[in-house]
Amino acid sequence: DQVAEGRLGPSTVVLDHTSGFEGLLLVDDDLLGVIGHSNFGSIRATTCVYKGKWIYEVLISSQGLMQIGWCTLSCRFNQEEGVGDTPDSYAYDGNRVRKWNVTTTNYGKSWAAGDIVSCLIDLDEGTIAFCLNGISLGTAFDNITRGAGMAYFPAISLSFKESVAFNFGSRPLRYPLAAGRGGLKGKEPVLRPSLEPCVSLGLSLQEGKLVEKDTSVWQLQGEPTVLITLAHIFNYFAPLMCKVYLVEDVLMTFLLSILERGGAVEAHPLIQQLLDLMWLLMEEYEVHECLKQLLMSLLRAYRFSPIIPDLGLQIHYLRLTIAVLKHEKSRKYLLSNVLFDVLRSVVFFYIKSPLRVEEAGLQELIPTTWWPNRFTKEGKESKEVKEESAEERLRRRAYERGCQRLKKRIEVVEGLQVQILKLLLNNKDRGGGEASRYIFLNKFRKFLQENASNRGNLTVLCPPEYMVCFLHRLIAALRFFWDGHKAKTPATLSSEEAYIPPQLFYNGKVDYFDLQRLGGLLSHLKKTLKDDLAAKANVLIDPAELQAVTMDDLDEDEESAMSAAQRPSAALAIGGALARPGWLSSPTLGRANRFLSTAAVSLMNPRRPLGTLEKIKVRTLTVEQRTEEDIEGSHGNEGLLLGRPPEEPEQPITENSLLEVLDGIVMMYNLSVHQQLGKMVGVSDDVNEYAMALKDTEEKISRCPKRVSISGLPASSSDSSSIHEKREKMQDIYWLLRVCIRTIEHGDRTGSLFAFMPEFYLSVAMNSYSALKNYFSPVNSMEELPGYEETLMRLAAILAKHFADSRIVGTDIRDSLMQALASYVCYPHSLRAVERIPEEQRISMMKNLLAPYEQRPWAQTNWILVRLWRGCGFGYRYTRLPHLLKTKPEDASLPSLQKPCPSTLLQRHMADLLRSDRDLAPSFLNSVLNQLNWAFSEFIGMIQEIQQAAERLERNFVDSRQLKVCATCFDLSVSLLRVLEMTVTLAPEIFLDWNRPSSELLLRRLAQLLNQVLNRVTAERNLFDRVVNLRLPGLESVDHYPILVAVTGILVRLLHGPAHAERATAVLLADPCFQLRSIQYLLGHAEPSALAAAPPTTEKRHFSLHTYTDYISTEELAKVDKMLSHLSEESKQAAATTLPTSEEDLCPICYAHPISAIFRPCSHKSCKACINQHLMNNKDCFFCKATITGVDDFTKPSSS
User: Fold this and answer.
1) Which of 927, 964, 1020, 1181 is least enclosed by beta carbons within 10 angstroms?
2) Where do the B30.2/SPRY domain residues begin and end (predicted)?
């Protein structure tokens, strides 16, 4: 054989997965695709060449660090050295744009994902060269070693997660070069000349015969002569059609040429007739293989064909895919066995963005760049709207025209993708078995399961950018069928009113895998709520099933503990048995099923995990076995809607199968779409910053005397058109938000059965709102969406009701609800939505917020209360702290950086609750005081450590985490003080009306804490001062202002205005920690002793509220002055009237107050403050541990 001369090895060339590799690698099951799974893994092919001219191609799937080329059998590689790093190995590296043969020099051009590298070797001349996308990069090496024993293998070294696919000639080369260069495959290129006439002859004969009769009415029962002739042709032709090379080179090209004649896909019945003939005249296994190879070739071509401006190639391949899927028998075979099982068919719904602007022709399409710089980050018009110049207007219009043209082309592709999904969701094609939609449903559920159950294993997951496109196309197809059904049966709901009925979550008809429910694990819910299920929904749980579930759970617990230890290695080692490793890139788009590891050969036959997989299979069979009747239901059988609760209306919603598709869409959004939208807005923000910087630079240059031309941002700005999510995409997410809101509302009405709802419904409701608010271009504002105000209010009602819902047990989802509510009250429009919810819900929400802080995550609720108060407190109208104004915030859209928007309505509810509920106020306030005591003590302890570290002579670093925790404790102290200020202002009688049993104790505790805070923060040259002056990164928020104005606010409210202020004064002065100089410090009155001690040269600036006139009004300052003079006067009088007390009369616990209480029955004594505080947590006497039954007032008898 002429072609085979000059090579050694098997005729079909693949990667050597038995002995020719080093490191960890994942290899596809066709042994042509490879993914790096270690630092620098290497692998070579099974065949080598020793004379002649040879070529092979490599498709680059990721553009990272790789060295591709040739090596000999004697080359030894390791984790640091790969192809090109040893003698007799030669490589090209387009990541660093170099060539390697022990030493390295610059060579070639940089590559990008989707490029084809051709590797050429000429063993007659002794040269090696490379081409990139068919363009020669020149000779890389000459005079390579030849002679006896020298033969070269194709080889590659690649780093972690990089991936490529080889073509040694088993498929047509994308860039075949001059004659005389053989692909390594050897045989099939020779077959091609003899086959092509046969194919064209066979097909033209058929075409000739059929065109004479009307092709549209042609049936398989055609003329016997034609069929017999065709049968003979197919007899020779069929075995060849199973070969990849011929399917791609001949069959696909021929089918594409039919569609090239233009017109709709329907206008070319020839493809349908050809598929009919194939099913009639070929063996079944041959048709299966041929269709599988055809779809694989189509998908490969769609994914890797270059982007040209009109997306013509992509449109071409999608049209052929539609033509093939229009054939019912082929469609069902492909759906059942290929589309989700062998292929990554989701790739068909992805539109890749070009990596090189020039190649994609974007510069011709969008000749100028423009950016909407009149918008701030929140999407609101910025204050200083500059007049648009004539030049800017022209640029903007040209940019918008270009984007419009691009959008039209993308819409054509999207339309074709939706058409594919409409074919897969067809439920009328019941000829020969089940309708396509029900096969699709089962496969789609399995696809979701793979992505939900393998969150940690990236190689299995569908990349999120594909998921985003799939989600939008699936929503379009679903709404088409939903509204189509509504048109036929007007009694059903339209897609605008879509929701998922609650029975889907508990009747077991839809598999939610092991996803968390609101009430915990499904097995636990089935046990605890089985009576409710029977009574409300008429769903009976089989006791045997309960038993099985519990045993399974035990099994799973053991397994998860076991597999956690060996997951990374074992899971990959059994690659093929697991669901589809290698998504991330498996370059050939087939399943990756071999895990190669030089280090872990023993892992190739793990014992336990295989058992697990078998068990999973048995479980998921239920999905595979469901029929149309199980889903849609029939006479007397409600299918998916079995077990309708009494609260649910009887009106039919839509076809049951569409409900399951909708449920899958919501799950998809939760799995990865939301994170991807966040990444996309990150790119958009970067472009925004570049655009601003470029504009800035241009303005500076225009002021320079000499003009300098710059061309900075054409590429990234013009690319931003693809980043700007379109209005339609925004409407899809908005529709999804409304679906979730309706679903949660319907589920909530079912009472205890609400616990069965999967957590992801609440997550998607919160995340989709956040995406609409933050992730879409500022040009598309959420306010313009239909029904926006009502949607906002319904979501507010959900958050307000469920953040403290006892039916929801997961801590993560409860935290998310709390954070969502906290963010909601930061923005005026969403805060108004909270104020619009029904009054009883508002009061219930406030009551939940005022529950005692113990035994629950209280920081978020405290933050919500602070936000409702911010803007009303003393000196509390700031958005950012005074000393931070000069620094730029990292992200101005953070909830904490929004302008104050207090809610007087919710404040009023809070005041009413605290006044009316005698038990609520003391329990809430005691918990706030406890937390303040803890937070401030922690803060002081930490700054002591920081100060000690800073004073050491050796160079040392304070742990950044410690600084962060320290700043958090400070922020918590300030926010707790603000909540106390809010309470004192709204309901002062809680502290000052001593007819209430707990008022005196609360006031004493408050005075004690305020004095401690003041003393710590205001002492001259103290610890707090020194740490603030260090200005450490991470402690930016720690400053005198926030904490001192919060304390001042409480003191001013206590000592001014309300009745009983003299009580507050007496309690404050009676506290042993009270120091008048702390109050003087607030107004910048320094201590005389400190002034005397300080040398006259140092002018130290003292803190004073008077310096913050932008933040504190003159009325507020006047109140502080008045308070200071009042306290000075009162403390003088108190000092004059106080008689010296002997030590025996002082409380033996605190030695600060005189004895004023005697305990029953043991008659021990202390002051009232000490015993009241002690009795909050403990009923035993301080001294004798007897249980105290009562406390009486004690007055010392006067000595006669």
Assistant:
1) 964
2) 1-173
